[in-house]
């Protein structure tokens, strides 16, 4: 049993297995249940293909209360959120296609999401130099628009914002990884502050005082409050939730540094450990 969706007017073609046709340019993640690849589509455009795969029945049953069974599959959930942000005028990755295949008794066996990219696109985490003031303002404004649309991202991080600042007057940016996003008719202030702090606190080397000032100025709130003050003002349950999120992010960054050190000692040509 399979289902799929392709953006009308796109040059995307899916094969019988639900995979986009195209040339594999590079694979950046290769884990037992997750793969991320950069493809060149038949029309020449490049796109990211993110695939969640559960080939063994035990893997599917362990996730059955989430996106493989009772919950909405990750690829559909993320595609819906990207399309809703696009409708709201929020800069986000452009969803091109998704596909799902299910196994008995209806659990998701694998699913994939295809999103557009562009030349020169890098995450905020990968930016080599200083981020321009105008881009911090625009990031803050786009966050405000996202929240005003009712989207609680829940995974905001420098690695989940793609941008290109090669053209100073027309920087491009796009939010990605919305598979855990929640939507509300009216987003409470605690959720807005939680998202903002989850974005800033894990990367103090990137977010200095000036960056925070410009970010909040673009957002239109909390210009007079620093991150520590804003965090202290969160209700207790929100503070604990944020603490758990920051700890997970800290562990991820530590693991990445260890992986980087190991990669430096590896023979050339071996793939690095995925993020």
Q: Layout of helices and strands, plus pairs?
A:
Elements lengths: L1 E5 L16 E8 L3 E7 L5 E8 L3 H6 L11 H14 L7 E9 L3 E10 L5 E2 L9 H16 L2 E2 L8 E4 L7 E4 L6 E2 L5 H12 L8 H11 L7 H6 L3 H29 L11
Antiparallel strand pairs: 1-5, 2-3, 3-4, 4-6, 5-6, 7-9, 8-11, 9-10
Helix pairs in contact: 3-5, 4-7
Would you write up a description of this structure?
The protein has 275 residues and is α+β, with helices and mostly antiparallel strands. It folds into 2 domains: 2-8 and 15-116, Phosphorylase Kinase, domain 1; 122-256, Transferase(Phosphotransferase), domain 1 (Orthogonal Bundle), CATH 1.10.510.10. It has 7 helices and 11 strands. The chain has helices spanning 57-62, 74-87, 133-148, 189-200, 209-219, 227-232, 236-264, and strands at 2-6, 23-30, 34-40, 46-53, 95-103, 107-116, 122-123, 151-152, 161-164, 172-175, 182-183. The protein has a 6-stranded antiparallel β-sheet with strand order 1-5-6-4-3-2. Strands 7-9-10 form a 3-stranded antiparallel β-sheet, with no helix packed on it. The radius of gyration is 19 Å and the shape is globular.
Class by SSE composition:
alpha+beta
Number of DSSP strand runs: 11
- Fraction of helical residues: 25-40%
Instruction: Report the order of strands and helices.
Output: EEEEHHEEEHEEEEHHHH
Averaged pLDDT, please? Answer: 85
Biggest sheet, in brief?
6 strands, antiparallel
Shape: globular
Taking pLDDT < 50 over at least 5 consecutive residues as the criterion, the unreliable ranges are 261-275
Considering the protein shown, what is the CATH homologous superfamily of the largest domain? Transferase(Phosphotransferase) domain 1
What is the second-level CATH architecture of the largest domain? Orthogonal Bundle
Query: Percent of residues in beta strands?
Result: 15-25%
**Largest beta sheet: strand ordering:** 1-5-6-4-3-2
């Amino acid at each position: 049993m399979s289902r799929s969706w392709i953006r009308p007017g796109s040059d995307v073609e899916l094969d019988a297995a639900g995979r986009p046709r195209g040339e594999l340019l590079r694979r950046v993640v290769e884990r037992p249940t997750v793969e991320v690849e950069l493809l060149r589509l038949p029309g020449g455009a490049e796109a990211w293909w993110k695939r969640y795969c559960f080939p063994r029945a035990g893997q599917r049953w362990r996730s059955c209360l989430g996106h493989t069974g009772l919950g909405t599959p990750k690829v559909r959930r993320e595609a819906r959120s990207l399309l809703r942000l696009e409708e709201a005028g929020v800069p986000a990755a452009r969803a091109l296609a998704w596909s799902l295949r299910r196994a008995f008794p209806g659990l998701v066996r694998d699913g994939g999401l295809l999103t557009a990219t562009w030349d020169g696109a890098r995450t905020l985490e990968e930016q080599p130099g200083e981020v321009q003031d105008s881009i911090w303002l625009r990031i803050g404004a786009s966050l405000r628009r996202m929240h005003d649309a009712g989207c609680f991202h829940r995974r905001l991080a420098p690695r989940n914002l793609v941008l290109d600042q090669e053209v100073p007057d027309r920087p491009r940016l796009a939010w990605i990884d919305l598979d855990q996003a929640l939507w509300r008719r009216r987003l409470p202030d605690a959720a807005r502050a939680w998202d903002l702090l989850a974005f800033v606190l894990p990367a103090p080397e990137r977010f200095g005082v000036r960056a925070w000032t410009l970010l909040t100025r673009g957002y239109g709130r909390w210009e007079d409050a620093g991150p520590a003050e804003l965090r202290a003002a969160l209700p207790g349950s929100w503070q604990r939730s944020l603490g758990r999120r920051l700890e997970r992010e800290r562990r991820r960054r530590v693991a990445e540094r260890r992986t980087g050190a190991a990669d430096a000692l590896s023979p050339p040509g071996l793939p690095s450990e995925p993020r």
